[in-house]
Amino acid sequence: MKVLVPVKRAVDYNVKIRVKSDGTGVELNNVKMSMNPFDEIAIEEATKLKEAGKVTEIVAVSIGPSQAQETIRTAMAIGADRGILVETSAPTDIGGVEPLAIAKTLKAIVEKEKPDFIIMGKQSIDDDSNQTGQMLAAMLGWAQGTFASKLELTDGKAIVTREIDGGLETIELKMPAIITTDLRLNEPRYASLPNIMKAKKKELEVIKPEDLGVDYTPRLSVVKVAEPPQRIGGGKVADVDELIDKLKNEAKVI
After folding, report:
1. pLDDT tens track for 123-181
2. CA dihedral 8, 11, 13, 15 (to 10 degrees)
3. How far apart are CA 97 and CA 158, in angstroms?
4. Which of 29, 60, 78, 166 is spaced 20 to 30 Å from 48 by Cα?
5. What's the CA gap between 178 and 150, in Å, rounded?
6. Cβ neighbours of residue 227 under 8 Å, at least 6 residues apart?
């Protein structure tokens, strides 16, 4: 079985986000970038399935600038066999390449690569859209299992345990299918030095959006990006009557 794993280059989750002075987006200059954590979980799960003998090939795909090759190499060091970079100069953070355009790009790659299933992060931590997996499933007409916290492959089917408001839901998907990963699916491994060296020699194909017939012209425009307002410090009250008075006259909640 061949599995396709999209991976995104995003601002590292340990970095404190700074908004640009003109409010058009977040500051990316001299900022540490790394693989989106949910995508890291996806590549780890694909690697586990390969080690269990249920997957024969893992293809990592990324959309972004030439620096995104580093993200693909990281995926290769974890377990991907080869990579595809759809190179674009368009920004891929907030207000950049939109989920619909990403889904169209992945659809074109799926038609070319013919994978048996796709496993991907449920969302990226920069825009938190949580849309690409669902859009791609609709475009391909494939089954989908979102927010997976457990995955099993058996007899051409995927058994997905997913987290919902009421608890855990277990569903059975016919292949081909799209699975999006949640935080509790696994704990990603650290890539070993020998695997990092091997990753440098693995095949990495670079293509352009035009080669896939995808237009990245945005349909939405970001009006403004702003930091959340500073929280106002709390205060102490002498008794219940004073508390009720403040809730009624200052907070206006009762």
Report:
1. 999 888 899 999 999 999 999 999 999 999 998 899 999 988 888 999 999 999 999 99
2. 170
3. 30
4. 166
5. 14
6. 19
- The CATH number covering residue 217 comes to 3.40.50.620
- Of 129, 135, 132, nearest to 120 by C-alpha is 132
Report yes or no: 147 and 122 within 8 Å, Cβ to Cβ. Answer: yes
Query: Tokens 């997957």 appear where?
Result: 55
Rounded CA gap, 96 and 94, in Å? Answer: 6
Q: Which domain holds residue 40?
A: 2-249
Distance CA 95, CA 125 (A): 14
* Backbone dihedral angles phi then psi of residue 168, each to the nearest 5 degrees: -120, 140
- Distances from the Cα of 213 to the Cα of 34, 69, 117, 193, 207, angstroms: 28, 22, 22, 38, 11
Helices (H), 52-98: 68-78
Cβ-count burial of 183 within 10 angstroms (0-12 exposed, 13-18 middle, 19+ buried)?
Answer: middle
Cβ neighbours for 202, distance < 8 A, ≥ 6 positions apart: 73, 76, 80, 81, 82, 83
Q: Which two tokens stand for residue 115?
A: 């994978």
pLDDT tens-digit readout, 201-250: 999 999 999 999 998 888 888 888 888 888 887 888 899 999 998 888 88
Cis peptide before 176 (omega within 30 of 0): yes
For residue 48, being part of any structural domain is answered with yes
Q: Does 254 fall in a domain? A: no
Residues 39 and 240 sit within 8 Å (Cβ to Cβ): no
